[in-house]
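Posting here for the record, re: magnesium ion.
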Amino acid sequence: MIILKTGRELEIMKEACRISAGALKLVGEAIEPGITTGELDRLAEEYILKQGGKPNFKGYGGFPATACISINDEVIHGIPSKERKIKAGDIVSVDLGASYDGYNGDNAATFAVGEISPEAKRLIKTTEESLYEGIKMARHGGRIGDIGHAVQKYVEERGYSVVRQFVGHGVGTSLHEAPEVPNFGNPGHGVRLVNGMTIAIEPMVNMGTYNVRTLSNNWTVVTADGKLSAHFEHTVAITSDGPVILTRA
Ligand code: MG
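Prediction output follows.
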């Protein structure tokens, strides 16, 4: 069931999303060669709690941390660790969220560590831009397939692929609610978009094949061919004023 949000509910979600965006920004600014993913996770959790939020990934499906931190060929769901050090030249995808007063925010971004290859830079830029192509289509009267199609077209025209096995989602009192928001699809198909829907649009873009596999820790998803992957996500409200990005930092 798709749960539409009232204006009052959107105000609470804005706060959850403000905290989520602030935590993501903070982690992005703290990323440097030598820092561990465990330390980045600690910074995110401390920030969220200080802002009066709760780290909504922690414990979700048993996930052990506040942030998913996925490096290079890791697509999503990387588990932070005190042993895992970030190196110059890495690309680091951070996905995290906060809940506030029972409502959830969710956002992600991929950060470059020091000098990275021009190919990696282009992948990151394309992934971020594809997110905005998708957001443009989050309008009353449209369809879910309009969003996925816009993302997929933008990505594939630039020679990359969109992950099929994981998708975006509705977000509200639950971190994941209906509908699913794939990063691929056909225009004019799928669930109808209406004002009051709140969705997380999150392109996961691979340099090579879209196939992925999950590591033996049962969480970390990596590209099947070992090539790089990037990930950007915003929580977006569909309103009579058009799409509103709730997780804008
Ligand atoms: Mg999400």
